[in-house]
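To assess whether ligand presence alters the predicted conformation, the chain was also submitted together with magnesium ion. Input:
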Amino acid sequence: MTMNLKDLWTGIINELSNETERIKLITWFKNTVILSVENGIITVGLPLPFFLNWHSVHFAKMTLEAAKKLDPTIRQIAYEVDLTLGDSDPRAIDLAKHFPEKNLARKVPKKNEVKFVGGVVSKILNPQYTLENFVIAPENRLAHAACLNVAKYPGQNYNPLFIYGGVGLGKTHLLQATGNEILRNDPGRVIVYITTETFVNEVVDSIQKRNMDRLRNKYRKVDTLIVDDIQFIANKDRTQEEFFHTFNTLYDGGKQIIISSDRPPHELTLLNERLVSRFESGMIVDVKMPDYETRLAILQERCREAQVFISPAVLEFIAFNITRSVRALQGVLKQVIARYEWEHIAPTVKMVSEIIKHSQKEVKMVGFVEDDPTPRGVITLEQLIDCVSEYYTIPKTEVVSDSRVRECTVPRQIIMYLAKTKLNMSLARIGENLGKRNHTTVMHAISRVAEKLKEDHQLMRDINAIKREAGMH
Ligand code: ADP
Ligand code: MG
């Protein structure tokens, strides 16, 4: 074969770029390389374990087709996770540079951008927010149902729709999702989503430039007006005045209006009475912090989207302890995922509790004992055994017995390895405590672990995680 592996990979990725969005390519092909082409098999190296599933499901077929085109001897594709792959690897392609943003702009149409007749472009709706990926809980069911109805029958049943609730509880999500859904049902609609701040700025600007008519005309052409965080209009008389007119014009024309606020209309004390009574004439719904089960479901959904596996115990711990807002909940998860991706350490409850401690000051954590009586770094064999059996969710009695159940073999070997290398225990004592094994068996197990560690990255991650969990350094 004449082509070198990097050129071949570049060629394949070029082919894929015809049918794959730039951002997806960059995300999933970053730091990937061709490890070899041998006997008709192209072996692709992936930098992280969770890429594997994604590549097999979404890219394997396409990649193989593209490879065949460039090198007809190729018949099969294989993947291998190699944690050492990174930016500095000479075989990896700098995709962001290889695919500059503008070249592919054609292939990634900006979604949901609305052009007014006068050439004014509205605020773009974020296509990530949908009514489907909003997790329903008793605390937000009504709000979600109202949005569904509005999306189906804009301007007909619930007008205006007024959604209120605390920070980070899903108001913006619902507003944007409803706009997206209306557009999906009827792409010709003019939907405008604005934050109240933007609206205030536009009014101030129009006053200065003395072209208020232009602003009025702009909003008159709208089919659905979505205004986020209306509480910020309090005290701004002139903006309220303008908004009142816009509201009336649209409302009288049967156009849908959707509003969000941090509190119900009657508590918006610095708001003009007329506006309050307008808001109260429609449908008012609230969103509250979802219950534990929903919080857990939201975390699971986000992990699924991000294609990462995080242990149930860790997700439960986050869901249990973060009760203030969904945004905070997701914030903690994002940090956990980032650490996982950067450091390749499987997240543990202990690690998460540290993240929470740093980022969520007032949270009091439950489910994790912080005051460990043993000083850091010194633990007993008993504690080590507890940690390992918990980590692998296998019964402790099995691990310390002489049972030969396969599930216990690796955990037991790890205990032996750590007991020797970290707790400095004698081979005889280790063996005595773990199923009365003799010291040669123990030595054999320990050297097996040491040997495997040289190439088994999963094992390395597991041991690192256990060390962390056990407080060993
Ligand atoms: P608000 O506008 O009320 O301050 P956001 O709509 O910005 O809150 O929500 C904060 C984050 O939480 C967003 O990423 C949003 O997608 C997410 N979120 C909130 N509630 C839910 C829910 N029920 N299901 C899924 N995601 C949610
Ligand atoms: Mg918001």
